[in-house]
Design a protein that fits this description.
The complex is a heterodimer of chains A (110) and B (115).
Chain A lengths: L2 E3 L3 E5 L4 E8 L6 E6 L6 E6 L3 E5 L2 E6 L4 E6 L8 E7 L8 E2 L3 E6 L1
Parallel strand pairs in A: 2-11
Antiparallel strand pairs in A: 1-3, 3-8, 4-5, 4-9, 6-7, 7-8, 9-10, 9-11
Chain B lengths: L3 E4 L2 E4 L5 E7 L6 E7 L6 E7 L5 E2 L8 E7 L2 E6 L8 E8 L7 E2 L3 E5 L1
Parallel strand pairs in B: 2-11
Antiparallel strand pairs in B: 1-3, 3-8, 4-5, 4-9, 5-6, 7-8, 9-10, 9-11
Classes of the chains: A mainly beta (110), B mainly beta (115).
Chain lengths: 110, 115
């Protein structure tokens, strides 16, 4: 079966660092994606990991451990505009659809 | 980066009417497109997978006669909500992937409100 878990909600302070975790169990694995979605808008791509390790892109970093079925998204120097839902998604294999987690709603407070 | 265009962004219609939503890949050929539905504060729910030149594959619980999908070319897929009812009111999002292992690009979404 396919199962992706991530926390439902998180709150963090402006300027701080927040880590959003994601664990997955899928019948295959062809990469893990993180998307950001603001209310009423479509998701936008943040990162893609297919090999173990940390991928850094500006204020955003994503980590993957395939053996543990685990990933996290790290957001540094939080800004108010980072308040959004963050979706973890796994590509099981081949051309099958991405499997999305339920998303983590992040609220950044002053 | 690759762009997926979705139109219309918002539509309000009367119950019983049909609504067509278009999804276009603007600068790449999308062999596969996916249609998702999202209710407020919930995650994306895959409705169907659309492959160019063949019939769409629908997820369990999605009525293929109600949600008609046509993927007639490598750059265009359409979703038609037939005989729409208020419970069909939702945010519909298309996405496209050009080839294997490529990230998914999303359209801007269509907010459907059925009165």
């Amino acid at each position: 079966g396919q199962n992706i878990d991530q926390p439902t909600e998180m709150t963090a302070t402006e300027g701080a660092i927040v880590q959003i975790n994601c664990t997955y169990q899928t019948s295959g694995f062809n990469g893990l994606f993180w998307y950001q979605q603001h209310a009423g808008e479509a998701p936008t791509f943040l990162s893609y990991n297919v090999l173990d390790g940390l991928e850094e892109k500006g204020r955003f970093s994503s980590f993957l451990s395939r053996s543990k079925g685990y990933s996290y998204l790290l957001l540094k120097e939080l800004q108010m505009k980072d308040s959004a839902s963050y979706l973890c998604a796994v590509g099981p294999s081949g051309n099958t659809p991405l499997v999305f987690g339920k998303g983590t709603r992040l609220s950044v407070i002053a | 980066g690759a762009v997926v265009s979705q139109h219309p962004s918002r539509v309000i219609c009367k119950s019983g009417t049909s609504v067509k939503i278009e999804c276009r890949s603007l600068d790449f050929q999308a062999t596969t497109m996916f249609w998702y539905r999202q209710f407020p504060k919930q995650s994306l729910m895959l409705m169907a997978t659309s492959n160019e030149g063949s019939k769409a594959t629908y997820e369990q619980g999605v009525e293929k006669d109600k949600f008609l999908i046509n993927h007639a070319s490598l750059t265009l897929s359409t979703l038609t909500v037939t005989s729409a009812h208020p419970e069909d009111s939702s945010f519909y999002i298309c996405s496209a992937r050009g080839s294997l292992n490529e990230k998914l690009f999303f359209g801007s979404g269509t907010q459907l409100s059925v009165l």
